[in-house]
Task: structure prediction
Amino acid sequence: MKRNILLLSGALLLSGCSENWGWYVVDPRTPNGLANLKFMMTGAYNTILMSLMAILISVIVGLLIALPGLSSKPYYRAINRTYVEVVRAVPILVLILWVYYGLPQLTGLTLNVFWAGVFALALSDSAFQAEIFRGGIQSISRGQYEAAQSISLNYRDTMRFVILPQAIRRILPALGNQLVYMLKMSSLVSVIGMQELTRKANELVVTEYRPLEIYTILVLEYLLLILILSAGVRWLEQRMNAAY
Amino acid sequence: MKSALISIQKVSKRYDRFLALDDVSLEVNAGEKVVICGPSGSGKSTLIRCINRLETHDSGEIIVDGLRLSNDKHVLEKIRGHCGMVFQQFNLFPHLSVLENLTLGPRRALGLDEKAANEQAMRYLERVKIPDQAHKFPGQLSGGQQQRVAIARSLCMQPRIMLFDEPTSALDPEMIAEVLEVMSELASDGMTMIVVTHEMGFARRVADKMVFMDQGQIVEVGPTEQVFEAPKSERFAAFIQQILNH
Ligand SMILES: Nc1ncnc2c1ncn2[C@@H]1O[C@H](COP(=O)(O)OP(=O)(O)OP(=O)(O)O)[C@@H](O)[C@H]1O
Ligand SMILES: [Mg+2]
Result:
């Protein structure tokens, strides 16, 4: 995989030497290019922060939604199904617009761009998290519940000490995927004015008229972030599974 | 009148249409060792799982230490506290060390502090003869060792009754003996035990009472020697023959 990425970057660089490209806009050797690069990178902070916040919230909400889905009572399961089906049906962009422009009118409560973005991303992702958790928890054998019951653990302790620690190890790869997905979807929050990577790039394009080079840098920024993230998730997986 | 520690009266249990327990009655006194045997699907597991309500019975009643089993949470908690259970598949918690497997229940349900729970766990690990494995994970142990950890885990909850559901059926032959030995020692310490097993040697040595089940019913029950020497039912006689010939 690493080789492919190298090849791709090489090809990009080679073609970058042709006349069509105007690398000067992001050339770190010129003051203007350096300033532009710095300007673009300042978006990374918000992209990362927003994604992490959103994933944190969506994991918690997802878990809370997953639990009734595991109940033997049809009524609880219906709550889970309804939430998942409804939330999953709304496109993320629509959700972002609705939360930012619609929600204040409905509730009188205005969220700033950051929190509106986090909220919309988290809401949308929570439906997927709920499904991931439900699958992970269901994959733990009945014997584990029975053993927990037989040593008098109550439901909360059974979940907390026996079921969830095992389920989380199993769903870690899926959670990692979801985090990557979240990072990419956070670019959509640029439409409501969030100053993250994509928004910064857009603003620069407007002043510099070099979309090709600027968006190429943008692509590389996301690529880099996601490669780092994937490596982090793999490291965590290995660490958590080292014990057994 | 001496009342039984466990009293099962006219208990029935269905899975959909299938009658898994058919009007079963059984009494077990304190300190008594009962071995239950019978062909596959005869309801042995269902019966002992009803005692700590891993399964719920449909009719009849089960009384454990004077408490009538019901959906009442407090009663259930008490009864589960009285009954330790050992499973065929061990069901250890794979993500916890042996020591943590043993201390989780005492710390969370009995309210022991870490030090007391650890000390107790080490005592029981000595008793099942594997104190040196305390910091390993279940996956690093042999089947026989895992089952002994599972026994210790149950004992850490200070039960009055131990339920065993085919504790040696998933083990390689050379490991069966070490688990049966631990169980025999437990028996001679006076623990009340109900054991589902086909280990007839163990049954003859340890059991006070033999129960033979077939098709959801108790077909034969009595003092061990009597049941082996002079079985009343042909089905039991045939079953014993079949096992001994294997
Ligand atoms: N959850 C369930 N749903 C439907 N039927 C079940 C369920 N559990 C058990 N049964 C049925 O009830 C009957 C009794 O099962 P049980 O497990 O008590 O038998 P057993 O005597 O323990 O057999 P084995 O020696 O195979 O463990 C079996 O025919 C089984 O198929
Ligand atoms: Mg069984």
Chain B touches chain A through 30 residues (CB under 8 Å). Residues B 44-45, 165-166 surround magnesium ion (ligand 2) (CB under 6 Å). Residues 173-188 of chain B form the longest helix (16 residues). Chain B has a mean pLDDT of 93.
